[in-house]
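Protein in question quoted for reference:
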Amino acid sequence: MYFIGRLICTVLLVFGSMAIAMGAAEPKPDKETQKLSRQVVKAATALVKGNLAVSDKQFDLIVADPSFAKLTAREQHVSLISSAELALHNGDKKKARERAIAANKTAVVSGSGWRIRATAAEARDWPEMLLSLSALANGFPEELSVLSSASILTIIRESEKSPAVSDARWELLLALNRTGWNSDSPEAQVLWKDLTLHLLENDRAAHADEAVRGINDLAILVGMRADNRFAEVVKANAYRFDMSDVAELDIESRRAIVQQRPRSLKALTQLNEALFRAKRYDEVLQLTTEAIAQTLQKTGSPYQDQAEQLPWIINNKGRALRRLNRLDEAVEYYEQAAKLTPNLVGHQINLAAILARVGRTSDALAALSRTTGSVSPFGKMQMESVRLIVALETGDSASIENSLAYLAAHRLDDEATYQSGLLRADRMDQAAQVLIQRLATPATRFDALVELHRVYDPIPTPSGNKLRERWLAIQQRLDVRAAIDSVAILSPHELDLD
C-alpha cells in the first residue's frame, strides 16, 4: 500500500533524527524525555510492522505527554506527521489538519505537513488549500506528485469562483508553472495561457515571459499570437510563436512523453491530438492501428489504462479515417468506441454526429437515444446540434426552429456550437453578430480567435461543403473583419479542432 510506504519513510526519518539528536551538543535529556523518546521508537516500530491502530494510539499518547515539548524538533515533527497521516488514513480530517499545523510549527521543515493540510482542509476552505499547495509548489514540489492532478485542478477551478482568494490562486498558478507541474495536460496548458494574460494585465511582463515557457500546445500558441492582448509576450518570445516550428515541437514533446510512458494510452491520445491539430492524419491512423493491435496480443495488453483509454484510441482512428474521407470505415470505429462505453455519453454523441453528417439521420437519432449516462450542459448542446443537423437534412422546419431555440437559450454553455448551428441553418446575420460579440467580450475572445483558425467540417458532403463556404464567407464580412482587426491579427495557420 502506498500509504504504508509513506509512513515507513516517515519512520526512517524518526530513526535518523534520533541519531542526529544523540550526537548533537545539547544538554542530556531528563529521564522522562528519554522515556518518551523510547516511546517514539516503539510507536514507529509498531507502524513498520503494520500495527496501525497500536501506532496511532501510541503517537496520541506521545503528543499529549507533558514532556513532548522537550523532544528534539525532529522527534516532535515526525510524531505529529505520523499521527496526522494515520488520522487522515482513518478519515479523521480534523485531527489530521490539527496535527499537520502543529508539525509545521516545529523547527523542522518538510512538505508532509503542507500536503496533509491540503488534503484535510475543510470543504471550500480555499485560503487553506491555496496556501498549502503554494507552499508545496514553492518549497517541496516533489510532494505535489502525491496529490492527484485532478484534485489540484478541482481546487484551482472551484476557487476561481471566490474573488476573495483571487490573488492567492494566481500565485499558486505561478508557483505550479515554475515546477512544470502537469505540463503535458491540456488543462494545464489553458491555465498557463490564463496566467500569462493575468500577469500581462497586471504589469508583470517578466513573470509572463516565464509563464509562457510552459506552453507548447499548438492551438493555444496560435491563439496567443493572434490576440493583441499577448502582443508584448509574443514579441519578447518570438521564437516560441514561429508557427513553422511550433507544431513540430508540440508533436515531438508529446512523442517523447509516449516514449517515457510506454504503458500509457492516455499519453498516446495526447500525441494524437497534437497530430490532428497539425493535420497529420496518416500518422494518427498508423499509431492508433498499432496500439489497437497491441491490445489484442495473446500475451495480454501492455497498457495499464486500457479500460479507460482504448475507446478514445478507437475513436481517434475513426476521426483519422473521417479526415481521410474513408467515411464508411470511420463510422465502424465510432460504433466500436460507442459499444465499448455505452454509459459514456461522449462516444454516443460522436457516433451520432458522424451518422447525421453522412445522411444516416435515423441511425443518428437512434444513437442519441442510447445515451444513458449523465449529460453535461456542454454535452446537451452537442446533442442538440446533432438534432439540428438531422432536421436540416430532412427538411423538418419545426424541428429546425426548436433546435435553434434550444441552442440560443443555452448559448452560454457553448457559444461555438450555437454559432455553428446558425451557420448550418444559413442564419448568417445572426451568426455574424454572435462572432462579433464573442470577439468584443474579453472572456470569450480567445476561443473565438482560435476558432477563426480552424478547419471547419471538411466532410465532402453537400451540407459539409456549404458549412465551410459559409464559415469562410462570414469572415469576409466588413463588420466581422472590423471586429477581428480591432482585437487581433490572424495568421494563415489552420487548425483541426474537431
Notes: Residues 183-260 form one domain. The mean pLDDT is 91.
